[in-house]
Amino acid sequence: MRRLALLLLLPLAAAAEPATLIRASDLKEAPATDAPTLASLPENAAVEALERKGGWTRVRAADGEGWVRMLALRFASSGNAKQGDSGIAQVVNVARTGTSGTQVTTGVRGLDAEQLANARPNPAELAKMESLATDRAGAEAFAAQGKLAPARVEYPKP
Amino acid sequence: MRSALFLAMLALVLPAQAQFRLPNIDVNRLVDTVKNVGRATQEIAEPEEIPIGRDVAARLLGAAPLVPDMALQRYVNHVGRWLAAQTERPDLPWQFGVLDAPQLNAFAVPGGTVFITRGLLERMQSEAELAGVLAHEIAHVLRKHHLTAIQKGARAALAGEALNVALADRGGAARERLIAFGTEMYSRGLDKADELEADRLGVVIAARAGYDAYGLPAVLQRLQAVNPEDSAVALMFRTHPAPSERLGALEAMQATLDAHAGRPQLAERFKAQMRR
């Protein structure tokens, strides 16, 4: 788990993500609507996304660094050579399957359409899952530990 | 109903001998089946929803078992149970599991079971992001999106046998077909409107639980950066609207998102779990 997690997280943490603006946007000095405007960026402007704070993302644009609305950004899809197929993960999965000893003959397990169609019930795993569930009191203690304060928020009108 | 009555009367007037000569026909069963066809459009109630969900969950666990990290599984259960406690179905037997699969996906199962894959979890960077995705799945359970889809498809899946037979007889062939159908639902996907609704409600549920409401949009933005040709996202992309479209639709939630943007993301608590 640990090695694989690092493998996948590293490319995300390491570099700025190339992104484009889906509409003309103000480049703000700080992550707030009333912050001073540094520049006006046109629709489709190419930027590099650096970090997110609430609904704002700090970007590096041709006119310097500043903040734009997070929802106005679309990341460039990582094509071709950049990351390749998570087939790396698939290979690891084969190895894991081999050593777990439970379903060796099926090869790569996982959650593709074919595997869903051919899945047989696994009541032992279901029982294990039920034993790991927590009750409301346990969840409340966990929330308090993280200083999560519940708020009243209405569902949107349909 | 009329044909059920007819069969019942037939059963009464048939001489016992005739029934012995046709040992393969169980007249009572036949009457039940005919009676129940008319009820197949009834709503599946909660006492039936929960065991259906358990049977479907057992199948999904047959496709991919749990990640063998009990502390991680408990952590995800705490986040999920806290979110569920903020909803109109707080007392379902909620349970959350991380499936040991490299694909990026998450699944809501009727009755309160939610799965997320190891592949998706490893792409996340904070507890608020995890909360956003779990809240989306919880919304599917609240609005019974999969249950309704199973019910709509039940007639075809059961090939003439009644839904009620499948509901009542957990070991029977009709049940088997219903559960197989319910499991394959996850490779067919729901209506786009159901997915977009779950996104909107997910944002609200995460905000109610006190998280930075931008967790779900942040995950969608990261998914949008994944190469769609990557086999790890093939199933999820086929069964959901494109991440870009989902982000666009969430602009309708801008006011809620911004009102709850400064709340905890709990990146450190999340990373501590993932590092172990």
Rg value of chain A: 23 Å
As an assembly, this protein is heterodimer
- Within the largest sheet of chain B, what's the order of strands? 1-3-2
What general outline of chain A do the C-alpha atoms trace?
A: extended
Q: Mind describing the biggest β-sheet of chain B?
A: 3 strands, mixed
CATH superfamily of the largest domain in chain A: SH3 Domains
Helix content of chain A: 25-40%
Shape of chain B: globular
Based on secondary structure, the structural category of chain B is: mainly alpha
Strand content of chain B: 5-15%
In the sheet with the most strands of chain A, the strands line up as 6-5-4-1-7
Beta-strand content of chain A: 15-25%
Largest sheet of chain A: 5 strands, antiparallel
Low-confidence stretches of chain A: 5-14, 79-84, 87-108
Q: Residue-averaged pLDDT of chain A, rounded?
A: 79
Q: What's the β-strand tally of chain B?
A: 3
The count of helical stretches of chain A stands at 6
Structural class of chain A: alpha+beta
Using only C-alpha atoms, the radius of gyration of chain B works out to 22 Å
* CATH architecture field of the largest domain in chain A: Roll
The CATH class of the largest domain in chain A turns out to be Mainly Beta
How would you characterize this protein structure?
The complex is a heterodimer of chains A (158) and B (276). Chain A has 158 residues and is of the alpha+beta class. Chain A folds into two domains: 2-75, SH3 type barrels; 87-143, no CATH class. In chain A, 36% of the residues lie in helices and 23% in strands. Chain A has helices at 2-14, 80-83, 87-100, 113-118, 123-132, 136-145, and strands at 17-21, 25-28, 37-41, 46-53, 56-61, 64-69, 73-75. A five-stranded antiparallel β-sheet of chain A has the order 6-5-4-1-7, with no helix packed on it. A two-stranded antiparallel ribbon of chain A has the order 2-3. In chain A, a hairpin with a 2-residue loop joins strand 4 and strand 5. The model of chain A is unreliable at 5-14, 79-84 and 87-108 (pLDDT under 50). Chain B folds into two domains: 1-37, no CATH class; 46-146 and 189-275, no CATH class. In chain B, strand 2 (106-109) and strand 3 form a beta hairpin. A three-stranded mixed β-sheet of chain B has the order 1-3-2, sandwiched between helices. With 276 residues, chain B is mainly alpha-helical. In chain B, helix 4 (46-63) crosses helix 10 and helix 8 packs across helix 10 (173-188).
